[in-house]
Each structure stands twice: as structure tokens, then as C-alpha cells.
Design a protein that fits this description.
The structure holds two protein chains of two kinds. Chain A contains 17 helices and eight strands. By secondary structure, chain A is of the alpha/beta class. Chain A has three domains: 101 residues, no CATH class; 128 residues, Rossmann fold (3-Layer(aba) Sandwich); 125 residues, 3-Layer(aba) Sandwich (Rossmann fold). The longest helix of chain B is centred in the C-terminal third of the chain and has 20 residues. In chain B, strand 18 and strand 19 form a beta hairpin. The radius of gyration of chain B is 22 Å and the shape is globular. By secondary structure, chain B is of the alpha+beta class. In chain B, helix 1 runs antiparallel to helix 3, helix 12 runs antiparallel to helix 13 and helix 13 packs parallel to helix 14. The chains are: A alpha/beta, B alpha+beta. Chains A and B meet through helix 2 and helix 3 of A and helix 2, helix 4, helix 11 and strand 16 of B.
């Protein structure tokens, strides 16, 4: 069957000059497009994708597994959007990539890894193919309350619910929020996937269904304010749910922690360690939340905070964005983004890499093992850091 | 050709070779107006040895090899006109050595301008290199291979004049060091006091070998950088203004530009005068000298200095992002320019020609002339933006550029980074014995004509 190739922003695709500013961070220190860095072909750069998409729309190129891989290896980190030199045009770069992926979904020409991801979410409600009943197990023993009429919902998401590293993070945040008197509840086994990765990977139908279900449930429960564990959830709640009628006040847990620390609501001891911080793309570049995580670290007595060479708006993605955390279309190897990032962290002389995203935590944790640096570096999320400083006293 | 693919995989590994439609499509074109032509293979080496082995294979099998940096010359110099292998050099991007005292750097053949700039800023803040206005992804090797220019060209000449040594993989596969590195560990001279063999490679557009290492001069990075812009509405005065300014021997960079949009710039000629210093006192002294040099024009009401404060952040960027943004003026993602090297005294005639061509072909123009080497010549860019989705506009731009090159040659100029049509136009005008020498050198270095074929070829 012949599919009409059409995407919403088809009329701007030709405007890419492929000048390559999009490959770099602000100060050009190294290539900052993770898939370009990993593959080393111009076709895997943002400009390369734009030119290939144009050729594909014009039917100069057929849909192929390689074309799909080029598209799905984009980690949607947003560096290209920030660095492109064309005002306004650049705002739609990620839309063009997402719309093209959606077209591939319509054609049914997606990589098996992506297909399996959709299937797992669709059938099981989560990419881990785990039972819904176990979704709230991360909170076992913490005594956290189900959401009734508290001020905040603490939304954990699939990684926080099912992944070992994510669960550890979720428990740390939950414990900290609880012990500092924040009024919040959780959904436990009633929580459902937020749909962020589903959307970025191009399954717009499934995304809409998930989002509408969540919005309906949130409204039914009277939820107005949400604290998310995962910046990906933060992003989708803030950027995509409103147009489906879901308008909530959304915070990332690091914003709450920063507030608690600056107001001295958390008694702290002293913990001597040199710490660097990895900006998650969906917290930093996509939502401009750069300072609260740093305020947390700087507020911890004994911590020597050092920045990586690429930080803030120029931070290098761990490679887990754009659904790659689940599909791994970028693949392994020395130039895999997480390994590159861990080497950059090592260069700072830090012994701890602080993170604020369960996906980054897992990606970087694995990268430490791949690099054989288990004895030199440790990944800790900010709540774990705070808990560690508390526990010393 | 299947065996060639396997032979390339054996040299490069799977991740270093592609003959997939997507890479073949992409690497068969550049952002300019010339027609694409697909390669048969694309390779991306990480070592000199890989480059050597691929070239040896290509020489043995008589397959074209086209070395490529970021492909931003815009004049089709990386389009594989006769197919074969496109060699993307950008994975060879290491900075191998900086000799701070001797002020030179040695980089691999795919190192980008941006990476070197960042490296110097981080580790050698007292040093800088002559950064071109091209995007930071462009490579140092490609820039010197086409006699590129940069922000220090006014002071020190073409960027290719700043080369301090080369490592070249010859078309027959030998690895050859040029200049002082051929005798010892130091990369301080590309030629003198030896016969300067770098001339066999610099400016040859990749037709005589592939640069795997480049030594490049670095220069003092002064603490303060400043700009003044002098504006006149009389093109005929621009050469004299430049003459007065270059007489000072104080300027870092000097560009004369004009463009019709926004309207505030229309019908005026702007001279961007960059100067540097290590103290405010030095800066103010230079500023005074610059103003004094041009006082006559102010007194005669022929021009004046404009307020630069609003434009300063953009003008002080290096490279200037706004230059790439010119491609989007017609909302179409493209521009191309003819940039002949010519005499500064001819500025008024070139300027008139730009406007004439823009009107004749109904295209959007911009022009910036960079003074070279204290005023011995200039690179006069005749730039036309186009909409990539409008083939008719692209064709008009192509015709306008062809006519610009014809004009430049007629005026005694030399086309810069000429496309293969412009090369033929150039060779047709060249002294026959010069042409004979050029072709003889090329044939001797590349007996099978594998290196970037279609360029610097008579037939």
C-alpha cells in the first residue's frame, strides 16, 4: 500500500542550510548531538535528518530500516533547537522529527524495538511488561499515603515504578518529602504511564489515549498540583496535557527540594564529597530548570560542587531521551552518549555524579560499569544525596 | 563493486563504511546550487593508516576519492562528480599538539574550527587562530586546502599562508610530511628554508592528496577586541578608505560590506574595522589613530562612524552566526557566493556589478569584501540567497554567479574556491605554460586521476 507522505511542518523542511551549528553546544567544545557523536555520519545529525526527511517526503528516498534508525536514534535532547541559527524555524525542528516518526508509525515501518515498546505500553500499561498491581511496590514500607485531598500528587512514572534504579530514586524522594512534612499522596497501583515517550516516538493515538485517561483520573481525584520524579513526565504534563484539557501546576522534585533546603526545613549534617551534576535534557534545556538542582547541591554542607565542561544549556545528553532509554537505537560503544558523559564527569575529579532523572541515573550508572569506573564514580540522585547528608548526622 | 565494499569494510570496519541509500543521497550534494552526483561509497576514517589504505585501494582499482570536511565550500567541491568514494574526515578531529612558545598547533585532518577555538580558549587563552566566518563545523584542513581566509587574514594573509606543516596521503598512497616535520619533531615551517612543497597541495581543492595532519600558526590573543564601523555612500571612496586604514598597520580585520536589507543599510558601504589591544590605553590610542585617518572623509561629509552598540554583540561573535542566517532571508535555506580575489582599487566596479546582477536575475544580494594581507588584495564576495524549494530561483542564482565569475576573470581577478565550471573558465584564460605546469604536476602526483576528479581537469 502506498502511503501519502505528509507532515504538518513539511513546508519548512527545505529551510535547513545544514550549516552544522546544531551539532555543537554554545561554545563549540565538542559535538553535542548525541546520535551524531555516536554514529559519526552527517546523516545522523539534525541537519542530516532534515535533508533526508525532505528527500523522503519528495520520494527521492524510500522508507528503510536505516532511515528509521536515523530518525529513532534522535534523543530529542533539544540541543539542535537551541543552537540552530534560524529564529522561529528552529522551534519546529523536533516537531519535524516527531511528525516524521508518526508517519512511520502510520506506515507500520518502525524498528522492532520501537514496535515492542508500543506493544508493551499498550498491553501492559508499562514498557517493562510488569503487572499493574506491582506499580506501587516501590513505596512498600515507606508509609506513603494514597492521594486523597493532599496538596500535591507525587507522580513517579514507569521508570520510578518498575526499574531498580528508578525505584531507589522514587523511594528517596518519597521518604524525603514525607519526612519534611510535604502534603502529598501517590497513586500507587492506580498510576498509569504518562505517555511522554509514546508521543516522542510517534504513536500519537496511544499517547492521546494515555493522556486523556490520566487527565480524567487526575481531575476526578481533584489533583491540581503534581510533583514528578521524572523530568520526562514533567515535560509532557506541562507541554502536552494542557492542549488536551489537562491543566495542572507541575513541579519537579528538585524544585521542591531546593525550596525545602533554602528554608532550612531539612536538618543537614556534613558530608565531604566532590560532586558534579548532570542536567537532564527535559529538566534543563526543555523546561529551563537549571538552578534548583544546583541550589540543592550548593546547600549541602561539605559538598564541593564542580561543573562539567558542558553544563546547563550546553549539557550533553546521556542518550536516554527520545525513547532511547527503552529502545536503545543509539546503541553501545565507546562513543555512546552515556559513556562520553561519564568520561566528562570523571574529568572534573568528582566522585559523585548527581542526577535528577531516573532515566539519566540508569544510563549513567550503566556507563560507569562499561567504563570500569565503579571504584571512582558513583551516580546518586539529588534526593539520595540529601538523604546521605542527613543520615551522616 | 560488491568486492570493493567488502575491501573497504576490511579497512574501516562496518561503522566506517556506508553504501546505504541515505548516506549515498546525502553525501552526493552540498548546500549550494550545483547538481548532485551520488558516490558509490562513503567512508569515515579515524586514522591516517585507514586513509592510506583506502587511497591505496582506490589507486589500485582506479576509483575516485573525494575528501570532505563539512562540505560548506558551497561550490560543489565535495560533490563526487565521477562517483567513487567520499571520505568524510570529521572523525579525525584530535588536536595533537600546541606549541605555546612557538605559537603553532598540529591538528588531525578533520578537526573543526570550533573545536580548535574552544580548545585554545580553555587551555591557551593567550593564543588564537584565524577563524573563518564559516560555521564552526567547517574543518581546518578543508579551509587551507581551498586558500580560506579568517579573522586574521588582514594581518597575516590567507589561512593557507599560516600553515606550518602538513601530513598528506598522496594519491598513490604514500604518507608524506611537508616542511619542518619532514626533518624532525617540530611543526614550525611548511617550507622555508626548504623548497616549499606545500604549494603542491594547498589550494588544490583536494585534487593532489588528503591532509591527515595540519600544522597551523597561532597568534596572540589580545585582552580587548573592539570594532568601529565607518559608513560612506560612495563606493568610489572605499579603496582610499581601506588604503588609509591599512597604512596604520594596527588593524586586526577589515571588511567592507553592503546589502539592501534592512533598509537602514541600503545604498551605504560599511567598513567593519576590528582592532585589539591589551589595555584600554592601547585601545583608545588605536581608536584615535583610526578616527584621525578617516577625518578627511568626515570633514568632506563623505562618511562617518556609526553607532555600533546595538549591533556589537553580533559583530563581536566569532564566527558570526548571522552569516549563515543570510541563507534564510528568502525563507529557503540557501545561499552561495562567488568570492574572487582581486585588487581593492576595483571595489567600486565589483560593487556595481553585484547590484546589476541582482537586478538582472531578480535575486537577493549581500556583499562583504575582506582585506587580505594589509591591502595587497581582497576577497570580494558576491552572495545571493535562494529558496531551496524554488528551482527557478536556484537556476537564476547559478546564472548570476557564473556571470559574476566571468566578470571577475575579465577584471583580472582570481576565482576563490571555484566550482568545476569556474575552474574551466579559469583554465581557459590561464597562460598556456602555467596551465601545462599545473596539469603536469597533477598528472605526476595522481597518475590515475583518482583525487576529486572533475576538478582542475581540462577534459
Amino acid at each position: 500500500m502506498e502511503y501519502a507522505r505528509q507532515i504538518e511542518h513539511a513546508d519548512i523542511v527545505h529551510r535547513c542550510f545544514r550549516c552544522g551549528y546544531c551539532k555543537f553546544p554554545e561554545d563549540y567544545v565538542d559535538f553535542n548531538c548525541p546520535s551524531y557523536k555516536a554514529f559519526g555520519w552527517d546523516t545522523f545529525s539534525p541537519g542530516g535528518r532534515m535533508w533526508l526527511i525532505r528527500a523522503w517526503l519528495n520520494k527521492e528516498l524510500e522508507t528503510s530500516p536505516h532511515f528509521s534508525r536515523i530518525l529513532y536514534s534522535c534523543v530529542a535532547c533539544g540541543n539542535c533547537k537551541d543552537q540552530c541559527v534560524y529564529p522561529r524555524f528552529k522551534d519546529y525542528l523536533l516537531n519535524v522529527f516527531e511528525e516524521t516518526k508518526a508517519q512511520l508509525v502510520n506506515e507500520g515501518r518502525i524498528p522492532p524495538e520501537v514496535r515492542d515498546y508500543f506493544k508493551a505500553v499498550s498491553v501492559n500499561g508499562n514498557p517493562y511488561k510488569q503487572p499493574q498491581e506491582e506499580r506501587g511496590k516501590w513505596a512498600d514500607g515507606l508509609g506513603l499515603k494514597e492521594f486523597t485531598n493532599q496538596e500535591y500528587l507525587f507522580y513517579v512514572g514507569c521508570v520510578g515504578s518498575y526499574d531498580e534504579v528508578g525505584q531507589r530514586m522514587a523511594r528517596s524522594v518519597g521518604r524525603l518529602l514525607s519526612e519534611t512534612g510535604v502534603s502529598f499522596g501517590i497513586l500507587g497501583k492506580e498510576e498509569t504511564a504518562d505517555g511522554h515517550e509514546v508521543k516522542v516516538l510517534g504513536e500519537t493515538g496511544l499517547f492521546t489515549a494515555l493522556a486523556e485517561e490520566n487527565i480524567m483520573e487526575f481531575k476526578k481525584k481533584g489533583i491540581e498540583k503534581i510533583i514528578t520524579l521524572d523530568p520526562h513526565a514533567l515535560n509532557v504534563f506541562k507541554k502536552d496535557y494542557p492542549r488536551l484539557g489537562g491543566k495542572f501546576e507541575v513541579f519537579h522534585y528538585t524544585e521542591i527540594l531546593a525550596h525545602l533546603i533554602s528554608n532550612k526545613h531539612i536538618p543537614l549534617s556534613n558530608y565531604r564529597a566532590k560532586v558534579t551534576y548532570h542536567d537532564p535534557c527535559y529538566l534543563g534545556r526543555h523546561n529551563l530548570i537549571f538552578e534548583p538542582p544546583r541550589e540543592v547541591l550548593k546547600g549541602l554542607p561539605g559538598i564541593e560542587f564542580v561543573e562539567m565542561r558542558r553544563n546547563g544549556p550546553s549539557a550533553f545528553c546521556c542518550g536516554g531521551g527520545g525513547g532511547n532509554f527503552f529502545t536503545d537505537m543509539v546503541g553501545p560503544g565507546e562513543n555512546s552518549p552515556a559513556r562520553v558523559r561519564i568520561r566528562e564527569a570523571l574529568d572534573t575529579g568528582a566522585e559523585i555524579v548527581a542526577v535528577a532523572c531516573p532515566q539519566c541515573a540508569k544510563m549513567l550508572d550503566n556507563a560507569i560499569k562499561s567504563e570500569g569506573l565503579e571504584n571512582r564514580l558513583e551516580v546518586l540522585d539529588l534526593a539520595e544525596m540529601v538523604n546521605r547528608v542527613r543520615s551522616i548526622g | 563493486m560488491k568486492d570493493i565494499y567488502h575491501a573497504l569494510v576490511e579497512i574501516m570496519g562496518e561503522r566506517g563504511v556506508s553504501n546505504r541509500p541515505e548516506e549515498i543521497w546525502f553525501y552526493g550534494r552540498d548546500p549550494g546550487v550545483l547538481s548532485p552526483h551520488p558516490p558509490d561509497y562513503v567512508v569515515a576514517p579515524e586514522t591516517t593508516e585507514q586513509v592510506q589504505k583506502v587511497v591505496q585501494l582506490a589507486n589500485r582499482e582506479k576509483i575516485p576519492v573525494v575528501p570532505m570536511g563539512n562540505g560548506m565550500a558551497l561550490t560543489g567541491l565535495v560533490i563526487p562528480l565521477k562517483g567513487g568514494i567520499v571520505m568524510d574526515m570529521k572523525r579525525m578531529n584530535k588536536i595533537l599538539e600546541v606549541n605555546e612558545m612557538a605559537r603553532y598547533v598540529v591538528v588531525e585532518g578533520g578537526t573543526s574550527q570550533g573545536t580548535l577555538k574552544a580548545h585554545l580558549r580553555d587551555h591557551y587563552p593567550n593564543l588564537r587562530h584565524s577563524l573563518p566566518d564559516a560555521p564552526p563545523t567547517t574543518t581546518i584542513a578543508a579551509n587551507v586546502a581551498l586558500h580560506g581566509q579568517g579573522c586574521l587574514t588582514q594581518q597575516y594573509g590567507f589561512n593557507s599562508d599560516m600553515v606550518t606543516g602538513l601530513e598528506v596521503v598522496m594519491p598513490t598512497g604514500e604518507i608524506c610530511k611537508i616542511g619542518s616535520p619532514s626533518l624532525g619533531p617540530y611543526w614550525f615551517s611548511k617550507g622555508p628554508s626548504l623548497p616549499d612543497l606545500s604549494g603542491l597541495f594547498l589550494g588544490w581543492l583536494g585534487t593532489t592528496g588528503i591532509f591527515t595532519k595540519v600544522g597551523l600558526k597561532l597568534f596572540p590573543n589580545k585582552k580587548i577586541r573592539e570594532i568601529e564601523i565607518f559608513v560612506t555612500d560612495k563606493a568610489e571612496l572605499v579603496p582610499e578608505i581601506i588604503y588609509k586604514l591599512t597604512h596604520l598597520e594596527m588593524l586586526e580585520d577589515l571588511n567592507a560590506w553592503f546589502q539592501p536589507k534592512p533598509l537602514m543599510f541600503k545604498d551605504n558601504y560599511h567598513l567593519n574595522i576590528y582592532f585589539t589591544g591589551d589595555s584600554e590605553k592601547e585601545i583608545e590610542f588605536k581608536r584615535t589613530m583610526i578616527w584621525d585617518a578617516l577625518q578627511k572623509f568626515i570633514d568632506n561629509k563623505d562618511g562617518g562612524f556609526m553607532n555600533v552598540q546595538a549591533m556589537k554583540p553580533n559583530l563581536m561573535e566569532s564566527p558570526q552566526r548571522g552569516i549563515a542566517a543570510f541563507a534564510d532571508v528568502p525563507r529557503g535555506g540557501g545561499f552561495e557566493y562567488s568570492g574572487p580575489i582581486t585588487l581593492i582599487e576595483l571595489y567600486p566596479r565589483f560593487a556595481a556589478k553585484v547590484v546589476e546582477l541582482a537586478e538582472k536575475y531578480d535575486v537577493i544580494y549581500s556583499s562583504a569584501a575582506r582585506v587580505i594581507s594589509g591591502g595587497h588584495s581582497m576577497m570580494f564576495s558576491i552572495s545571493f540567497a535562494f529558496n531551496r524549494a524554488d528551482p527557478a530561483m536556484m537556476e537564476r542564482v547559478k546564472k548570476a554567479l557564473d556571470e559574476a565569475t566571468e566578470f571577475a576573470l575579465k577584471m583580472g581577478g582570481i576565482p576563490w574556491k571555484p566550482n568545476h565550471f569556474e575552474q574551466k573558465m579559469t583554465m581557459a584564460r590561464m597562460d598556456p605554460n602555467t596551465l601545462k605546469l599545473l596539469l603536469m604536476i597533477k598528472q605526476n602526483l595522481d597518475p590515475h586521476g583518482i583525487m576529486n576528479p572533475g576538478n582542475w581537469e581540462v577534459n
